[in-house]
Amino acid sequence: MKTRSLSLYIHHRLISKAFCSVDSVSISKGCSSSRIEYPDIEPLCKKLGLRLTNKWPDGRPYYSHPSIYDPSIGAYISDSILIAEYLEKTYPDTSKLFPNGTTGVQSAFNEGLLATLTPLYGLILPDMFPHLNLVSKSYMAPRVEMAKSKDRAQDWIKLQEGMDQVDAWFVRNGRRGQFLLGETSSWADIVVVSFLFFIRRVWGEDSEEWKKIMAWNGGRWKNLSDAFKKI
């Protein structure tokens, strides 16, 4: 399994956590939520008839969570960005994550960020592994081993270069605010914060790794993290 594929595998879970912290919508009393283990994702998605999220490098279908079910239309929606788009259209009185027709641009940002931060996974996944439940450990062990960094010092350099690139994208808003689009947070900010949340959760706020990243790019990532403190 390629590192990028493994990154996609956990990417949607990270974003769902951040998204739910940014905005909320009214739901009926009958609604419920549940979490499932990694090896159960594909069988459940197939059982529910959920759409493919992507494909593995060998062409096999790739499924991911989160997903939601809307009884009013009798359908499931999967893929984080599609869920966000659906909820924004269904609940128009909530804050806008895709203002002024920026859905396409923000989708491209999402893909660019995934590619740019590839070095992160080889560094952090081995430290994430102990946090998994036993059934997921058995499933993820060979994948984590394959993704593990072969040269941590070099991958840290590559990760910082990647964050420098992301910082450059933010700077192009004319320095009008700390968010990608300026003064107002958007889907793109949630994508970035989902990675920051992941890093903080695995390595901890007192770790050297977290402190190092928080100091990069003039403290941009610390400021962005602080803006989403409730995550």
TrEMBL record:
This protein's name: Glutathione S-transferase UstS-like C-terminal domain-containing protein
Species name: Psilocybe cyanescens
Glutathione S-transferase UstS-like C-terminal domain ranges (all copies): 105-230
